Structures are given as structure tokens and as C-alpha cells.
Prior knowledge:
The structure holds two protein chains of two kinds.
Chain A (H helix, E strand, L loop, with lengths): L2 E4 L10 H12 L3 E7 L3 H8 L4 E8 L8 H12 L4 E5 L2 H13 L5 E4 L1 E2 L4 E6 L4 E7 L4 E5 L15 E5 L8 E8 L12 E5 L9 H11 L2 E4 L1 H5 L20 E5 L5 H4 L7 E6 L12 E4 L2 H14 L6
Parallel strand pairs in A: 1-2, 1-4, 2-3, 3-10, 4-9, 5-9, 12-13, 12-14, 14-15, 15-16
Antiparallel strand pairs in A: 6-7, 7-8
Helix pairs in contact in A: 3-4, 5-8
Chain B lengths: L1 E5 L2 E3 L21 E3 L1 H15 L5 E8 L4 H9 L4 E6 L6 H15 L3 E5 L10 H9 L3 E10 L3 E8 L2 E8 L2 E5 L11 H7 L4 E5 L11 E7 L8 E3 L2 H11 L4
Parallel strand pairs in B: 1-4, 1-6, 4-5, 5-11, 6-10, 7-10
Antiparallel strand pairs in B: 2-3, 7-8, 8-9
Helix pairs in contact in B: 2-5, 3-4
Flavin-adenine dinucleotide sits at the interface of chains A and B.
Amino acid sequence: MSVLLIAEHNNKELKPFTLNVINAATQIDQDTHVLLIGHNADSVAKSISEVSGVKKVIHVDSPIYENYVAENYVPVILKNAENYSHIVSAANTFGKNLMPRVAANLDTSQVSDIIKVLSADTFLRPIYAGNAFATVKTNDPKKCITVRPTSFDPAPSTGGSAEIVKGDPGEEYSLTKFVKKEEIKSDRPELGTARIVISGGRGLQSGENFKLITAVADKLNAAIGASRAAVDAGYITNDHQVGQTGKVVVPDLYIAVGISGAIQHLAGMKESKVIVAINKDGEAPIFSVADYGLEADLFEALPQFLEELNKLNTIQK
Amino acid sequence: MKILVAVKRVIDYNVQIRVKEDNSGIVTDNVKMSTNPPDDNAIEEAVKIKEAGKATEIVAITIGDDKAQETVRKALAVGADRGIHVKADGIIEPLAVSKILKAVVEKENPDLVFMGKQAIDDDCNQTGQMLAALLNWPQATFASKIDVKDKSLEVTREVDEGLETIEVNIPAIVTCDLRLNEPRYASLPNIMKAKKKPLDQMSATDLGVDTKPRIEQIKVEEPPKRKAGIKVANVAELVNKLKNEAKVI
Ligand SMILES: Cc1cc2nc3c(=O)[nH]c(=O)nc-3n(C[C@H](O)[C@H](O)[C@H](O)COP(=O)(O)OP(=O)(O)OC[C@H]3O[C@@H](n4cnc5c(N)ncnc54)[C@H](O)[C@@H]3O)c2cc1C
Ligand SMILES: Nc1ncnc2c1ncn2[C@@H]1O[C@H](COP(=O)(O)O)[C@@H](O)[C@H]1O
């Protein structure tokens, strides 16, 4: 038995969540191998080989893999699948797009979005937007699994010394073409891994008003999140959305501003260590999960918040 | 061009679900059900494409118990031309759903299959990708914009980093995000008319698909509850608590 993990990267860097998935994989089986499919990604192969817990890196290089297209990845994964009992990747838009295409090819019923490894075939996973936890056991001989990265600590990025072997590319899939990716670059911490997240909702009323959120985020070195309503209204781009159909975040501190707390939003943040809610409606459901609730108008509260933060001598980064 | 749209009947998204006392599942008796939200977007998009003169027929399909037919009727009321109900009871896993859909695709020969990106009950996010795999068709998942070209679609996908655009040849599978469009409501006259539209029925067995679950659901539990917090009187108190009590800033 051993685990084949599909790495997420951009040919230059390993995506940080891969480390969390490596940790989950080693809980399934110590013999964890990572499959890196890319182009000119030698530095990524090297950094994976140094991750603690990784036993082997299979590096497949071809210009076909310049950009990630699931249809191109799948033949490579299938070629390598034979030697493994489990195939795993992250339950983010990368792995969600990829893994079911692998699973169906192997006639396997996939287990999505696990939050705990109970044994090599039994897992805990949230259903109904996290309003219930299901314990599930898969009986398929080959198990395809996606892992909720925020439910596992990252594996240490050093301490390993796995061998790197070259793998063969698969056939190119000609019916799907990558056109472009509009990536929003920022100097802020990444939403998924930030220690502090401050999110704005419909209560912000406009994209312009999000600068009140940005100012506090700058001060706290926080990532910025948003409710679906705020994204739908065009206040902020989709990569900021937190929730059932957005990102799941588990920061030390989550500050929800002008967000009512619909179950679909809570699904993405209610595991946060400390939750703060700022809302002018004292009955808003967000207060039911908040450790500290402030019933106030955000347009007064946010500037005051910044002012109070400015008074502090030190702020943890 | 013909579009097949898969719609699932789920507990309404506004319902606060309850776990059964014996931990065998979720209470569904007397609970409001509706169409899985992004499946409404899938139907809406198909109807818009037909209205633009680029599609000739829309077939809505559901897999489930007798009541699942309501979901197809609703799709017919907003513009689908024909319905299919594949009867199957109990939990039907995405793998089985995709095998059923594959069998139907082989009979119906649609050019496109539209579905939701994720069912809000099982939160699996698998079925479209699996169907694409079984048919070896291109997959455009998490679509928030679709441009129909001559023999292809240009699709904008919502991904973690922002937006991605891909081009897929037709035939293709598209899974829809809620931001794809604004689903319309069914008017009363259209609801009446929908009752007369054809709705074929068949069973999973007729299609030769074994729907027995592969995954055992051992138990379903309530997630741990957060303990109740406090309300603070003002911003100064909030900052003080965060600094000195929670020690997070
Ligand atoms: C299938 C499905 C999936 C979904 N997925 C997600 C998801 O992933 N993420 C998500 O967030 N939502 C999701 N939603 C939407 C969700 O149901 C809610 O509609 C959404 O979260 C509401 O966003 P909101 O809280 O910003 O807006 P609202 O519910 O409108 O709340 C705005 C809040 O702001 C407060 N407010 C207004 N003005 C002020 C002020 N001046 N000062 C202080 N407070 C103020 C109000 O009191 C109110 O509580 C999903 C819905 C469906 C059907
Ligand atoms: N029983 C079903 N009947 C019809 N469509 C379904 C069914 N199950 C899943 N689907 C389709 O597949 C999508 C994704 O579902 P899932 O993979 O379960 O998250 C849904 O949005 C539907 O479009």
C-alpha cells in the first residue's frame, strides 16, 4: 500500500496547501509519493523532495503541462496509478476539478473533502455545508480522495530527502485548450493560509467602501475575504469568497464585517479559532458563532478600530 | 444543438438541517425540498442559449425517487422542452449518477451537458467531471461565463487564484457556478403548460446501471458546537479583548 499525491504548483513554486495534503497522506500511509506534472519545474521537484514525509517524487516534464488542464493530467496519473492504493489531492479548485476525472476512469467512488483520517479506508467529511459530519468507509480497491487542506497542519517543508525520478508524459488531450488565467497578485498573505482574515459583506455597500477593510487588513497584516453577496455585487473579485462554494479558512482570527452569517458563509469560516462579528443588526446569525460580537454601524466601527489598533505599541504579525 | 441538463432535488438551501437521532443520516421527512441551486443556473443558461437561437432542444433529467420529478417539472416550467426521470431510491453516488447520465447521453446524443458544480447536500463536486471522464469529453467546471462559438465554447471558470478561461470543443460537459446568470422564476401559465410537456420515465436497471453505493456511510453526527461568545460594548473593549484575552493581535 502506498499513496500517490498530485502536487499543485505553477512550475515555479509548490502551492502551500500541498504541504497540508502531504501531512494527511502520510496519516493514510507512510509511503507517500508525490507526482509532479509540469514544465521546467525542476525547482519545484527539488522543494517537494525536501518536504518531511515524502518518500519519492515522480517528475513528469513536457511543454503540454505548461498550464494545468485536468484532461492532460489524467492520463499521466492513470499511468502511475497501478502501484498505489490511494490517490490524493487538495479539495480546492485544482483537486476538485481533477480527482473525479481520475476516479471515474478507475471506476472508483471518490471521497471528497476529508477533514480527518480515521484509518486507511475510513474518513470524516463534512456534508450539508458543514452542518453534519459523516464518517465514511470506502470499499473500492483503489481509493481516490480529496483533502480539505485547512483541516491538516502543513508538513514541514524541510527535513526530507526523497529521490526524484523522471516519469513519462501522457498523450495530449486536444479538445480542451487553456486560454488564459487572470491571477490577482497581491502582497497580502494568502486567504487560505493567513493568520488573520477580515471579510466584508453586503453591508459594505460598495467596492469603494472596501478600503475601510483594506486599511485594517494592512494594519493587521491580514488577508481579505468576502461573502458571496459582496462578490456577486461586484465589490470584490471571486477569489476572495469564503464559504460553501468559495474558500474554507481557519485563521487564528476571523473578523466578519457587514456579513449576516448565512449557513453557506459559516461553512467557510466557523472553524476559525477566534471570530469577531461587526454588524448593526443584533439578531444577525453571525453573532451565534462569534466569540466577540460588536453591534455597531461598520462605517463608524471600522475607522475607530483602526484608530485603536494604531494606539497599540505592538501588533503580532 | 441539443442540451441535456441534470437537475437534482435536494433539501432547500434555507433549511437548517437536522441529524437523525440514530445517526443514520439527515431528517428529510416534512422538510422543504427544491432544485439544487446551481442546477437552476444550468437550466437558465440552456434556456438563454436556446433563446439566442443557438440551441434547438433542452432536455432536463433527474435521478431519484418519485418526488424528484418535481425538479424536472420546474425545469420544464422555465423553458426545458422535455423531461427524463430515472427512478432510483436511496443514496445515489456521483459515480452511479454519471454512469446513468452516460447511458442517457448515448441514447439522446446531446451536444452539451450542463449541470451544477456541486450538490449542496453531499457537497461532492464530482458528477460532471466523472461524466466527462466516462465519455472522454472535455470538461469546463465552475463556469461563470459561457460564450457559444461555432464548434466550441469559451468558458470562464472560477478558480482559487481568480478567473481562468478555457476553450472546449463541442460536445462538452459544463458545470455551473451560481454567478453564471440570474435564474428566472416560472410564471403560473408556464407552470400549467409544463404539466403537458413530455416526461419519460425509466429506471437505473433499464439503463443497466448498478446504483449500489460503494461508500458505506457509517454514521452522521452533528459537528461540535462553538461555545457562545460575548457582546462587547465598543471598539476599545473589542481591541482590548483581542489583545489581552484572546491574544490574537
Ligand atoms: C448554493 C449556495 C451557495 C452559497 N455559497 C456561499 C458562499 O460560499 N459564501 C457566502 O458568503 N455565501 C454563499 N451563499 C449566499 C448566502 O446564502 C448569503 O446570501 C450570503 O452569504 C449573504 O451575504 P452577506 O452576509 O454579505 O449579505 P446579507 O445577508 O445581505 O447581510 C448583510 C449584513 O450586513 C449588515 N449591515 C448592513 N449595513 C451595515 C452597517 N452599516 N454596519 C454594520 N452592519 C451592516 C446587515 O445587518 C446584514 O446582517 C450561497 C448561497 C447558495 C444558495
Ligand atoms: N441525482 C441526480 N440527478 C440529477 N443530477 C444530479 C444528481 N446528482 C448530481 N447531479 C448533477 O451533478 C451536479 C454535481 O453534483 P455532486 O457531484 O453530487 O456535487 C449537480 O449539481 C447536478 O447537476
